[in-house]
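Good morning,

Attaching, inline, the backbone tokens for the sequence recovery test we're adding to the shared suite. The designed sequence is right after.
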């Protein structure tokens, strides 16, 4: 039998994160901190300048978008038709949300919670 994702223990052991080392691990020098701050401030200034240029120049904005955004695929009529059929079938089956759980003869839409899923599984198993 699979282990549950959540413990049945009402008082689980606490999780402690003792060291991330993101900002200061206690051994960094002031020079390293100043360098890091300077680089981040410089990058922020460059981004602000680029934003101002893009905002005021639609030609450059289009070029930046072409360089940075992924290409948009052209719709395939066969795929679109299949998706439409799938959505219609889902509606007929009562699938209105995600995630969707089918447990026994019961359809459960949306995030229903651990206790509700556990209860539905127990009822389905008791029916045989």
């Amino acid at each position: 039998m699979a282990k549950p994702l959540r413990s049945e223990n009402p008082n689980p052991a606490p999780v402690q994160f003792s060291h991330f080392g993101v900002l200061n691990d206690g051994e960094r020098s002031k020079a390293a901190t100043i360098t890091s701050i300077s680089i981040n401030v410089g990058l922020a200034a460059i981004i602000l300048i680029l934003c101002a240029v893009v905002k005021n120049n639609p030609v450059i904005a289009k070029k930046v978008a072409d360089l940075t955004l992924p290409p948009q695929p052209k719709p395939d009529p066969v795929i679109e038709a299949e998706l439409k059929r799938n959505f219609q079938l889902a509606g007929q089956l009562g699938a209105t949300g995600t995630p969707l759980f089918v447990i026994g003869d019961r359809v459960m839409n949306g995030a229903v919670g651990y206790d509700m899923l556990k209860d539905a599984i127990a009822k389905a198993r008791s029916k045989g």
